[in-house]
Each structure stands twice: as structure tokens, then as C-alpha cells.
What we know:
The protein has 192 residues and is mostly helical.
Amino acid sequence: MANQEKSVRLFWLLFKSTFVLSAFTFGGGYVIVPLMQKKFVEQLKWIDSDEMLDLVALGQSAPGAIAVNTSILVGYRVAGFLGALVTVFGTVAPPLIIITIVSYFYMNFRENPIVDALMIGMQAGVAAVIVNVVIGMVSGVVKQRDIVNILLLLVAFIASYFFDVHVVLIIFLAGLIGFVNLSYQEKKGAIK
């Protein structure tokens, strides 16, 4: 009975955490990711920082919304398949509720200058949060001091920004290079 009660508490905490994060986060997945890190890594200590970075990378490379993908991975990591179901529901429910309400009243709000000003202000805040996420992710790569990963980061940015190389190709090649680099590092460590 105690294990069942503990499981219910765990699932409730997973649902509540993802629901609140999703309900009060504006600007998309890149905004919710640092909040997930703060909640699941720093506060609850369910996942370590490096693993969270890996989950975010997986969530970003999978098709779909990064917030939903990452919440599925976090839920699965913490509580298996049922945890993934709980976190995906907790992440998807608030936007569905909010969008349903907003779409009902959209025609009345469309021309309102106050709503327009709020949207412009939120765009500025979202831009600042996204810059913060990028700085955090880059610093995580640089802290590892692996020259291959640092070069890969720079080359991926240059290829995407300046040469308009398709993101899917960049992700595929970066994953392949990362796999080869990790395999080489492990063999090198085994030889020593």
C-alpha cells in the first residue's frame, strides 16, 4: 500500500510540475527547457545536469514540439512509460485549454491595443529567455573541453546561419560525428 501511495505521489508531482511549467511559460519549448532544468535537476534532483542536456538534445532532434518531447523523455526517465504519459498530458493540457479559450474570444481581442502591446512585450521577454538558453547550452559544451564538440558547435552554427544547410542534415551529421568521437574517446580511455 505504501508503494502504491508513493507512486501516486510521484505521478501527481510529475503531472503538477509539467502542468504548471507549461501553463505559465510563454514563448515555446526553448523557454520551458531552462525551467524544466531548474525543476527536475536543481529542485527535485531527479536528473543530473548532463543527462538533462542529453534529454533536451534528443527532444530537439525528434519531430514535434521540444517541450512535449523533452517532457516525455523526462517522464520516461523518472517513472517509465506511465511517467511519460503523465508528463505529456501535463505539458499539453494547459496550451489546449488556453488556446480554446483564446480562440473563442480572439475576434474581440484582435484589434485591442493593450493586447497588442502585451504581445510585443512578451516577444522581448521570450527573446531574452532564448538567449539565456543558448548561453547555458553552449557553456555546457565548452565546459566539457572537448575540442571536437566545440568545433562541431561552431561548424553547425556557420553551416546553418551562413550557408542555409538544412537542419536535419546538420543534426544527422552532428550525431554521427558525436558517436564517432565518443567511440574514439572510449577506445582511447580503454587503451590507457
